[in-house]
Write a structure and sequence with these properties.
Blueprint: H1 3-21, E1 32-36, E2 39-43, E3 46-47, E4 52-53, E5 57-61, E6 73-75, E7 92-95, E8 101-105, E9 121-124, E10 129-131, E11 147-150, E12 156-159, E13 162-163, E14 174-175, E15 179-183, E16 186-187
Antiparallel strand pairs: 1-2, 2-5, 3-4, 5-6, 7-8, 8-9, 9-10, 11-12, 12-15, 13-14, 15-16
Length: about 190
């Protein structure tokens, strides 16, 4: 085998090996992220052109070192294929008290449609399934651009947001300067 052919084969194999070692998520914005047991989960968001909301779900294990140019992202989007997955960007996301799942609430979408249960859903990181929590009391209106904070006991505090075309509201822009406390799947 000639030296140029050998070098071409080595280069090809190195390129294939590099591409197979890592998954790089597509460029998006307005996603939310949460840390659960040394794994970062990133959900939802939108792509820029054309403005399209996505149901992407990625994870990154941070318990092991990785090369910053090739982090070991895992695409979990395939597990998000059922109808309970909210199609949202600019939403809130927080971990459950048991450390096995996370909640998503609110957000808007490129279709301008209201979300089922105002976008309130739960993803179990162990079973890799989405569900809709069944005991919803005093559910506030869906809104996007919200902020959330949570305690280690699983209480989430949700602040503000807006309702507009992207949350399925009429074209009238509406702000929500209210503060909600979410505990045991009950808004107060």
């Amino acid at each position: 085998m000639s030296k140029p052919t050998f070098l071409a084969i080595v280069t090809l194999l190195a390129t294939i090996a590099h591409r197979a070692t890592g998954f790089i998520p597509a460029s998006q914005y307005n996603q939310a992220a949460v840390l659960i047991n040394d794994t970062i989960y990133v959900f939802g968001g939108s792509i820029i052109r054309p403005y399209t909301t996505v149901k992407s779900l990625y994870s990154l294990d941070i318990s092991q070192p990785w090369i910053s140019t090739n982090p070991s992202w895992v695409d979990l989007t395939i597990t998000t294929g059922n109808s309970t997955v909210p199609l949202s960007d600019s939403h809130a996301m927080w971990p459950s008290a048991d450390g096995e799942s996370f909640y998503v609430w609110g957000g808007g979408n490129s279709r301008g449609q209201p979300l089922l249960q105002s976008g309130f859903a739960q993803y179990n990181t162990v079973t890799r399934n989405w569900t809709l929590p069944s005991a919803i009391i005093n559910m506030p209106q869906q809104r996007d651009y919200i902020s959330a904070s949570w305690t280690s006991s699983g209480v989430a505090y949700i602040w503000a947001g807006e309702g507009d075309y992207y949350t399925g509201r009429p074209a009238v822009y509406q702000t929500f300067p209210t503060f909600y406390r979410l505990s045991k799947i009950s808004f107060s």
